[in-house]
Amino acid sequence: MKVLVVGSGGREHALVWSLAKHGNGVELHAAPGNPGIAALAHCHPVRADDPASLVPLAVELGVDLVVVGPEAPLVAGLADALRRRGIAVFGPNADAARIEGSKTFAKDVMGAARVPTAGLLPLAKPPCVVKADGLAAGKGVWVCRDQAELDDALREAEGLGQPFHAEELLQGGEVSVFALCDGTTALPLTAAQDYKRIGDGNTGPNTGGMGAYAPVPRLSADDVAEIVDCVHRPVLAELARRGTPFTGVLYAGMMLTPAGPRVLEFNCRFGDPETQPLLAGLGGGLLEALRAAAAGELAGVAAPRTERAAVTVVAAGRDYPAAGDAGTPIDGVADAEAGGAIVFHAGTALREGRLVTNGGRVLGVTGVGDTVADARAAAYAGVAHIDFAGMQNRTDIAADA
Ligand code: AMP
Ligand code: GLY
Predict the structure, then answer these.
(1) Model confidence over 364-383: pLDDT tens digits?
(2) Against a cut of 0.85, is the pTM above it?
(3) Which class is 2-93 in CATH?
(4) What tens digit of pLDDT does each residue of 43-82 get?
(5) Which of 95, 131, 177, 249 could anchor a disulfide with 244, C-beta 3.0 to 4.6 Å?
(6) CATH number of the structural domain 171-295
(7) 336 C-alpha vs ligand 1 centroid, how far in Å?
(8) What spacing in Å lies between the alpha carbon of 27 and ligand 1's midpoint?
(9) What is the CATH number of domain 309-383?
(10) Is the dihedral of CA 167, 173, 174, 176 positive or negative?
């Protein structure tokens, strides 16, 4: 079987790593991939946001399955274009990807499916959360505790030039809950915890995610199953009813409020960095589940089993999240790996044979163990080996697990 993974980040490295580890002779390709992925798969120099080149590549390679990592190509219709050419895809068509691509659409679907979420406010007043409608790479959400914050948020939201809305400010712990979907069936995966702020103690600006762990001890498998019953399955049914069935990972960002779990947002893809610990702890079964989801044959398939706990600590560049880093030499990856850590590449490049930085989030150093505490110790033992000028990492990932 030939599989093409689309993307170049830590999430895609984790997907390729897991497929290589458990895939039993699967032939792996990636576009464009990264130096970590290149050790496991054939990398093709085609960007994830270039469907005009990706579709012919998939046809030429004769792949049996395309797994799309990032949201932007899905929202732009990459999966539609591949399906039109008869290629099986793990990832939703553009209509269904609107569950992530438009917050207004997501609210409308949740309303129709009676899924618990923050209520819309007819009148923006603090405390509240202002959200721009479209994809904004994490920059379209403003938590407003007072009028001054709301004034700033409204000015910035208007500046984005997209529609926006104000909703109820929810309180509680956040957790990411993933389900594999084939249009009608949803298969729960292990829940994961993401750390979005740049600084220890959840301080400073929001980022794509500075670390994550899975599973989440405070959520039992029954809790996760209940969330999938109340959230993912009704949304899947509503999307199918509208004629836009969802195939891929439906990712619910949940707030565990005193009144029960509430949806903060949906994503139409695997989380990054949550996928790294999620897949690092998996016992196998990913390829079969992805293939079955893409074929509409998930019913009766066993959910991939989580066997170990895992913790990922992101090593980011000096100016992240304001800017990326490029060309700074990276040391210590082989030592971290020799010590037992899994080092997922996120923003790296090879320059004259030397591994250098090439992005904001550079590496996802991952430890596995029997407990989250063991996995955390293994991840930080790995981080201690990694060095590049300006490297920043949080020191408290999974400390509260
Ligand atoms: P989103 O991109 O919608 O997940 O929002 C980014 C972050 O903003 C979330 O991870 C939450 O920390 C926060 N957030 C979003 N919506 C709400 C809400 N209704 N109440 C409180 N915090 C929120
Ligand atoms: N880690 C958050 C996300 O993937 O959206």
Answers:
(1) 999 999 999 999 999 999 99
(2) yes
(3) alpha beta
(4) 999 999 999 999 999 999 999 999 999 999 999 999 999 9
(5) 95
(6) 3.30.470.20
(7) 34
(8) 39
(9) 3.90.600.10
(10) negative
